């Protein structure tokens, strides 16, 4: 049986008249890494804050580790780690002092050296927090979130402001924690981050979940793309599983069967001794799906019109 750690049923959260989260439902299993994605204002932070017990639900049911995060806060809190979008540090304290204070508030904490090594801040222990770079500050927040070896970890945009090397280091830390059985709920605006890390994603828009599943399954809802440049006068082949779009000398096929359509195209080009300049073929990405959803209109409007419709 699935070991469900986070349960959300029909969650709604309003601020006055405005409904920021409009009846979402989720199940997240132990050891799973789940990413909440969505445009600015889609309701991700609100959702994660309700799960953290920082805000009450307006209606619906929420359980973390089988407990109500608001009513059972004292039981849930020691078993969860929280990295907020904007943590509050006292800038004059050193990194070591900051960790020591948090250690004194944490049940069974890791040692200061352990946790700072984990996030690669071991050599910054005696630096005042206000002197850390933005990315180092985020890593310190991550260290504090994982100090108590949480069973559930909430990460709200954990890698914002990090350079690519820090981001990858953070991904490694998150993967290690997940391997150890930690359940992770993450929000991010970096689609690549979700594609690399997440077992499952949910894309939110306007307070609702509009797509959910494993990244590869969500991506499969959109066709792959084959594109190249060819002078407009050349005849073009029909590919059996693809719609063709032509924009000047740029030709794009949206294909539901990339391998067979690409094979057909290359056979055609070879037989006719045609060189396909700037040829590229790639499956859709999570970013494509995200942009498609964010744009809120269908594929034929978003891309160039299919040739047949002209
Ligand atoms: N305390 C509040 N009072 C009133 N409205 C709020 C409050 N907090 C959030 N909102 C509104 O609720 C909506 C959802 O906000 P939320 O922060 O959950 O979105 P988000 O998906 O996390 O966005 P972002 O990607 O920009 O962080 C937004 O329209 C926001 O303006």
Automatic annotation (TrEMBL):
Gene3D superfamilies: P-loop containing nucleotide triphosphate hydrolases
Primary localization: membrane
Family annotation (InterPro entries): AAA+_ATPase, ABC_transporter-like_ATP-bd, ABC_transporter_ATP-binding, P-loop_NTPase
UniProt GO MF annotations: ATP binding
Subcellular localization, as worded in the UniProt entry: Cell membrane
Pfam families linked to this entry: ABC_tran
Listed SMART domains: AAA
Membrane topology per record: Peripheral membrane protein
Keywords: Antibiotic resistance, ATP-binding, Nucleotide-binding, Transport
Membrane is among the record's keywords: no
Stretches assigned to the ABC transporter domain: 6-231
PANTHER family: ABC TRANSPORTER ATP-BINDING PROTEIN
Name listed for the protein in its UniProt record: ABC transporter ATP-binding protein
Species for this entry: Micromonospora reichwaldensis
Lineage, uppermost ranks: Bacteria, Bacillati, Actinomycetota, Actinomycetes, Micromonosporales
